[in-house]
Amino acid sequence: MPTDHRNPARDASQNPASSAVPSRASNPARDTSQNPAPSATQVVDDSDRAASSTGQVTKPSSPLPPPILSLRGVCKKFGSVRALDHVDFDIRAHEVVAVVGDNAAGKSVLAKTIAGVHPPDSGTIYLDGRPTLIPTPAAAHELGVATVFQDLALCDNLDIVANLFLGREARAYGVMKEAAMEDIARSVFGRIGARLPSVRTKVAALSGGQRQSTAVARALLGSPRIVVLDEPTSSLSVTQTAEVLNLIEHLRDLGYGVMLISHILADVQAVADRLVVMRHGRINGEAPMADVSYEDIIAAITGVPNDLTRATQRRADAARAG
User: Fold this and answer.
1) First to last CA, the chain
2) Ramachandran assignment for 59, one of left (phi > 0), alpha (psi -120 to 50 degrees), beta (any other)
């Protein structure tokens, strides 16, 4: 098992963003994901887990809940470029799964495949264990997948309520129900713990963290089960990053399955329950976040073999052989 050397960036005294995030020990959902039963998502073999440093046999771990969404053997090509190469990927409720990797590793293509923007060329997508298709973003929305892309797609000249309901305004006899939409907006922001001056504030006047909260709130109006966040803390200040990380924690605690794409490893280590490392369109590492160190992640991203990459390769080989 990879040694858990803590990254100094996670120390609350050095990183105000992570200090605003609840501790791992206080969250039962993290405890379950950090002690998975023997399955396709194990990091090490059963024999490796059985022997502790004292030579004693460890107790069997509790089983993971079934995934909401699963990808098996998914491939996607753009011309001669294989953006996704036999990718297996799971998203579970009450879990933040972080996807990291270098540029052109396939992170955004994976997110867009789940969001229905890029249907896969081959492979199977399962929803609650049943094969399904996600041919369009509208289909993804109907299946309960909400995606917030890096550009957020907000209108600066409109207020928060108008952005939330843009194109789907509540109307009665041709007149917009302004009061009802305001009440719904306040309810959504209260549920995710977002702090905003007023729901009638123009988006142009919001901070980066508040803009991210607005984009997430808009996605939640459709009652999704999965929330995909593409680089949500990119180009944010320390305070704004803390707001977004707290928002991600709130989403997980509310029962959503959260897919977090980020290149900022300190943020990933602060909130993620499980880590997936992509390299050249493949899964090069997968493990509970508590089981990997900063050095393990960097090695997997850059292609240096280590315990994390070797264990992931063994599981992939076993899955294909089975």
Assistant:
1) 24
2) beta
